[in-house]
Amino acid sequence: MTVRKAVIPAAGLGTRMLPGSKTVPKEMMTVVDKPAMHYQVEEAVKSGITDIMIITNRGKDSMEDYFDYSPEYENYLTKKGKMRELEELRKIAEMANITFIRQKEAKGLGHAVLLAKEFVGNEPFAVIYGDDMIEADKPTTKSLIEIYEKYGKGVVGIKEVSPDVISKYCSLKVDKVDDRIYSCTDMIEKPTPDKVMSYFSILGRVVLPPEIFHLLETSELGYGGEIQLTDSMATLAREVGLMAYEFPGIHHDMGSKLGLIKANISFGIKHPEISQDLKIWLKNFVKTL
Ligand code: UTP
Fold it and tell me: Looking at residue 1, what is its pLDDT?
């Protein structure tokens, strides 16, 4: 069955980005000239997704406004004859069928995904973590969907992280199957050193079968007293198996200060309007360090 729905959880508190995240959700922080969430929705659409549910929270209404029409700007641009800009702006509201639901309390990623149960129904679906941006030629979600279709199992997007940070991520037990493709038989959230299974961790993209909802509903509270998506994916991996894809490209953690800066530089270097000036400035700036 083809994957046409995606869930984008974006209801976390974003405490690592305070005080900025007090009024601007980390998922809406700007990378060059667009919020991170724009890139996430763009990736979903380029992957063949037509229906998206974004999980939001109090104070995150800017996401709904962003994907709506904006009559004030549109009238202004029409009057000024700026038709290209007008078209760009209208396209944003028409990218996909986007619905929103609020997670009233930040009870974890698993709890956020569970809120999309009715929306997803009995279909496989993609989860695009709202604060994990991936810069790649081919959309990572598209690759995961292709692997799902080939193997008929859920797929998680993975990368190796360094041993000193694995305790902040999850750790996967994997066996190589093909180039960049692994079979995953177990995983653990935020492992202590003796529980590390490998340095492969899930970084922001998964495609899951609808069976995950029953596991989430019956899941006990996990790390941090939250409903962890990792715990239910671990059960799925142990009971029916999961695939893992070591995706190419650069991962940007928009939930961290360094990630936000790196994303802006990396995307800025490729942006036709500022690329040259940014490169010159960066070269000179590096000399002053
Ligand atoms: P994180 O664990 O990075 O989010 O979740 P966080 O809790 O906001 O981070 P810090 O530690 O306080 O800085 C990954 C993604 O899952 C969403 C987040 O918004 C983020 O996009 N999330 C997390 C939810 O939607 N609900 C939650 O309860 C937790």
Answer: 76
